[in-house]
Amino acid sequence: MSDQDIERRIARDIAKWQRGVRDKGEPLQIDEGWLHTPQGLRLPFSVLKSAGVPPREVELLARRAALREQLEACSDAQQRERLMHELSELEQNIAFRLEALQRLGTGRP
User: Fold this and answer.
1) Is residue 67 assigned to a domain?
2) Measuring CA to CA, which of 7, 20, 29, 41 is 20 to 30 A from 67?
3) Residue 109 confidence (pLDDT)
4) In terms of domain of life, where is this protein from (predicted)?
């Protein structure tokens, strides 16, 4: 294959790709979470999101919401005590993780 053949093939593939691009000329939709993500973590989190893998903190926040619902519905005092303790530990864990992410994203130690 000559250089000209290769260049034609590349040009043809680029043109084919450009025809398939949706929303040409439209501004990109930026979700609110991206704006609140520290700049140093935006790319890694975007890759995880594209792969369908939520950050661990999202799972922890969902667990916190579930614990709060269980706590509201619970009438047993001993069970409520256990749930409150678990919720307290989880909230501390979330706070530490979010603070560490903030530092990591800004490059501070």
Assistant:
1) yes
2) 41
3) 62
4) Bacteria
The token pair at 68 is 């709060």
Q: Is residue 5 part of a domain?
A: no
User: Is residue 29 in some structural domain?
Assistant: no
Q: Is 91 helix (H, G, I), strand (E, B) or coil?
A: helix
Among left, alpha and beta (phi > 0; psi -120 to 50; other), residue 70 is: alpha
Per-residue confidence (pLDDT) for residue 23, from 0 to 100: 65
| Token pair in block for residue 101 | 């992410």
31 domain-assigned: no
| Number of domains the chain contains | 1
Which structural domain, as residue segments, surrounds residue 83?
A: 59-109
